[in-house]
């Protein structure tokens, strides 16, 4: 029996605007590691539009199979089976990647996991490799909209380790592990697409 396709309306809404940005960044052939793939809708949309890329989905153990429905239906040759990857784990199932993508993960992960994600990628990426991070972010402690402020409050009430991350903190973290911010794009629904480059 084919695995169920899980559905996220947010992914349906944001996948094309994200693609329009990342296609200018993921221009060279290579393997892109996606962290926290969720339903797999992003993986299929991006791999189908970027045939020069090998898309490598991943998610935490227990969640890594959630993307299988969309991936197996797509039958795309340039999507690899999902890896079990918890960014906080000391051993990642990949030694090197040509680039990375992650959507809506930084506010779900604990801050220590966000640190582990940046550090783990920095260790596995060569100089010049890109990391595209999509989601809501705040600036100088200020939210960019009332809806983001409410969302942040909702997250923190749900679990104290979650919350919208601030750019000042991300910039400090990136500098510590060896990434620089190349661009910060405004996206629909008060989200941003951050493009980091490994130094
Ligand atoms: C809000 S969902 C986003 C899913 C998908 N990227 C999207 O945009 O719809 C957050 C994702 O982050 C993953 N995640 C949370 N903590 C993680 C960790 N420590 N390592 C890897 N993935 C993690 C979750 O399993 C989940 O798939």
UniProtKB/TrEMBL annotation:
Pfam families: DUF938
InterPro entries: DUF938 (IPR010342), SAM-dependent_MTases_sf (IPR029063)
Record-given protein name: DUF938 domain-containing protein
Biological source species: Marinobacter azerbaijanicus
């Amino acid at each position: 029996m084919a695995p169920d396709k899980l559905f996220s309306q947010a992914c349906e809404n944001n996948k094309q605007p994200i693609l329009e940005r990342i296609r200018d960044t993921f221009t060279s052939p290579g393997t892109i590691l996606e962290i926290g793939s969720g339903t797999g809708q992003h993986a299929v949309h991006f791999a189908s539009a970027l045939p020069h890329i090998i898309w490598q989905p991943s998610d935490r153990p227990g969640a890594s199979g959630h993307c299988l429905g969309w991936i197996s239906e797509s039958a795309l040759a340039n999507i690899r089976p999902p890896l079990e990857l918890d960014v906080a784990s000391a051993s990642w199932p990949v030694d090197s990647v040509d680039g990375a993508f992650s959507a809506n993960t930084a506010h779900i992960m604990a801050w220590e996991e966000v640190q582990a994600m940046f550090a783990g990628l920095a260790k596995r990426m060569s100089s010049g490799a890109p990391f595209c991070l999509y989601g809501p972010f705040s600036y100088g402690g200020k939210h960019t909209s009332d809806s983001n402020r409410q969302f942040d409050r909702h997250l923190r009430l749900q679990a104290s380790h979650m919350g919208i991350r601030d750019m000042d903190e991300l910039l400090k973290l990136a500098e510590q592990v060896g990434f620089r911010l190349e661009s910060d794009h405004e996206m629909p629904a008060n989200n941003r697409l951050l493009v980091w480059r490994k130094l």
